[in-house]
Specification:
With 498 residues, the chain is α/β, with parallel strands linked by helices. The chain is built from 10 helices and 23 strands. The strands form 5 sheets. It has a 7-stranded antiparallel sheet, with no helix packed on it.
C-alpha cells in the first residue's frame, strides 16, 4: 500500500497551541440514518412521552415552517454510543430561537452534548435549545447536534419523534449514502447533563499512575497545560477525572507547531523548550508546516512558498536552545511525496526537508531529528528509506518517526522500522504509541471504538534501534467523529484509559 491514510493526524495540542487543522476528511462507516419530512399540518398528531408532549413542549401559536430530521449512530460500544441528530429547515422562513426535541424509548440517555447551548432530558424526552452563537436556522440549512450517550447493555440506541419549535418531524428509513445536506452546526460547546436516576454508571478503574521512565535520551517533559489538563482541573468531581489525570494528563506528550506563523513560532518553541529544560526534561516537538501540506486535503495549509518555509523553520530552530530535544519532522511530507506533486515540487520538498534538518542541527546540536516516513501499512521500507535519504536523513537526521496518529502495534512498527533503518544505513526510530494498545480497527481511522492507550512514553525502550516510544497524538483528542477534530473528548480519553 503506497498511500494509506493516517488516523486523525492533527489535533490541538492545547487550547493555547493555535489553530490546528483536521488531518483527514470525516467518514462514517456502518452509520445508520433515519430521515423524514412532516410539515406544519403534522401538529394534529401529538406524541406524549412520560407525560410530556413533544409538540406542546415548544409549540408556537402560528408555526410557519417544516422540517426534516436525520438520526445517525456514529459509534456504539457495550454501554455507550455517540450519535448525531440533523434537523433541516425545509420551510421558506428562518426559524428563530430554535428548540429541537427527540425521544428515547429504551432507556437511553444523553451524557454529553457537544453542540447547542442548553441540553436537557426528562425521562425519555431530550430538548436542545439555541445558544447565543446560533439562534437562527435559515431556510435550507441543517442544524447538526452531536452527543455521546448511555444505553442499556445489548440494546441498540434508537431515537424517534423529532420536532423543531413545535413542528414534528416524522421518521422514515433512508440509506446513509443517499443523505446529503448543507450543514450548519451549532457552536462546539460541551454541555453535560446528569444520567437519569437509577441508571448504573460505568465502572471506574483505579488511577494506577504510570510515572515515565528515563533512558539514554533523558526523561521526557510532561506539560502542565493542554486540554486534558484543563478538563481535569475543571472537572475534579467527575468520577473519570482521576483516571484521565493519571493515565493521560500527567504523561509526556508532543507539542505541535502547525500554524504558518513565522513571526511567532520561534517564541512558541523557545517558551516550551525553556520550560522543559528548566526542569531537566526533554521536550518533544512536531514541526508541521510544509508547503502543499496534505496535498490540499483536510489538513491543507503550511507555508506559502519555499522561502516562507525556510524562514519559518529557521525561526523554529532558533527557539530550541542548547538543551536536548526530540523533533518529529513534517508528518506526511515524505508519505505524500508522489501523491500530488510534480517532479520539480518533489525535489523542492526533499530540499526543504534537508534544509530543515540541517538548520535545526546547526541551531541546536543536541536536538534529535526524526524524519516522519509514515507507517508499516503505507510505504514499502526500501522506498521510505530512499525518500528519507534523498531528504538528508543520512546526513542530518537521527532516524525515522513511525505510526504518527495511527494504531499499528509496536511489533509491526519495530519490525518495519528496522527494515527502513537497515536500508537507510543509520539511525534509530521513534514510534507513536498513544493509541495502539489494542492495535488497528481494520481500516477505520476516525475515532474507532475499542482502542486503548499504548506503551507509556519513555526513552527506556530496551531496544537499541528504538530511541523512544512517544505520544505524538494526544490521547482523547478527537479525529473528527467523536467531536470536532482536535477537541478533547473525556469519554474517548476515559475509554482509552479503561
Amino acid at each position: 500500500m503506497t498511500d494509506a491514510p493516517r488516523a486523525g493526524l492533527l489535533s490541538k495540542a492545547g487550547l493555547r497551541a493555535g489553530p490546528y487543522l483536521a488531518r483527514h476528511r470525516r467518514e462514517r462507516a456502518n452509520g445508520r440514518a433515519r430521515t423524514a419530512t412532516v410539515g406544519a399540518a403534522a401538529l394534529g398528531s401529538i406524541v406524549v412521552i412520560g407525560g410530556t408532549s413533544l409538540v406542546a413542549a415548544n409549540a408556537t401559536s402560528d408555526p410557519d415552517h417544516s422540517c426534516t430530521a436525520a438520526y445517525t449512530v456514529l459509534r456504539s460500544w457495550s454501554t455507550g454510543f455517540s450519535a448525531e441528530v440533523a434537523v433541516q429547515n425545509t420551510g421558506e422562513d428562518a426559524v428563530k430561537n430554535w428548540n429541537v426535541n427527540w425521544s428515547f424509548k429504551s432507556g437511553q440517555a444523553v451524557v454529553k452534548g457537544w453542540e447547542g447551548g442548553d441540553w436537557k432530558q426528562e425521562d425519555g424526552l431530550v430538548t436542545v435549545g439555541a445558544n447565543e452563537d446560533s439562534v437562527r436556522l435559515e431556510p435550507g440549512k441543517t442544524l447538526t447536534l452531536r452527543f455521546s450517550g448511555w444505553h442499556p447493555q445489548g440494546e441498540a440506541p434508537e431515537a424517534s419523534d423529532f420536532a423543531l419549535n413545535g413542528v414534528e418531524c416524522g421518521v422514515d428509513e433512508q440509506d446513509d449514502d443517499k443523505k446529503e445536506r448543507p450543514t450548519e452546526s451549532a457552536s462546539p460547546e460541551e454541555s453535560s447533563i446528569a444520567l437519569p436516576p437509577g441508571l448504573p454508571g460505568r465502572p471506574v478503574p483505579s488511577p494506577s499512575k504510570k510515572p515515565p521512565t528515563s533512558g539514554p535520551l533523558g526523561s521526557l517533559f510532561v506539560d502542565t497545560e493542554g486540554q486534558a489538563v484543563e478538563w481535569v482541573q475543571e472537572n475534579s468531581g467527575d468520577p473519570r477525572a482521576a483516571v484521565i489525570r493519571d493515565r493521560i494528563a500527567e504523561q509526556p506528550q508532543a507539542h505541535w507547531l502547525a500554524a504558518n506563523n513565522p513571526g511567532e513560532v520561534g517564541s512558541d518553541v523557545r517558551s516550551y523548550a525553556r520550560k522543559a529544560h528548566s526542569r531537566g526534561k526533554v521536550p518533544v516537538l512536531v514541526a508541521y508546516n510544509m508547503t502543499n501540506r496534505d496535498c490540499g486535503g483536510a489538513s491543507a495549509g503550511g507555508a506559502d512558498s519555499a522561502d516562507g518555509y525556510r524562514t519559518w523553520i529557521s525561526n523554529f530552530a532558533s527557539g530550541l536552545g542548547s538543551g536536548s530535544s526530540i523533533i518529529v519532522l513534517e508528518p506526511d511530507a515524505l508519505g505524500h511525496l508522489t501523491t500530488c506533486l510534480s517532479s520539480d515540487q518533489q525535489q523542492e520538498r526533499l530540499d526543504l526537508l534537508r534544509y530543515a534538518a540541517k538548520t535545526i542541527k546547526q541551531a541546536s546540536p543536541k536536538a534529535r531529528v526524526y524524519y516522519d516516513v509514515g507507517h508499516s501499512a503505507w510505504i514499502a521500507a526500501g522506498e521510505a528509506a530512499d525518500r528519507a535519504r534523498r531528504a538528508g536523513a543520512a546526513d542530518y537526521g537521527d532516524g525515522v518517526a513511525l505510526n504518527t496518529s495511527n494504531y499499528n502495534t509496536n511489533s509491526q512498527e519495530v519490525a518495519y522500522g528496522k527494515r527502513v533503518l537497515s536500508a537507510l544505513g543509520r539511525g534509530q526510530m521513534v514510534i507513536d504509541t498513544s493509541r495502539n494498545g489494542a492495535g488497528p480497527a481494520g481500516g477505520e481511522w476516525c475515532d474507532p471504538a475499542g482502542r486503548k492507550l499504548g506503551k507509556y512514553p519513555t526513552t527506556a525502550t530496551g531496544d537499541a534501534k528504538v530511541a523512544a516510544f512517544l505520544w505524538v497524538k494526544r490521547p482523547g483528542e478527537s479525529d473528527g467523529c467523536s467531536g470536532q477534530a482536535g477537541q478533547f473528548i473525556p469519554d474517548t480519553a476515559y475509554d482509552l484509559s479503561s
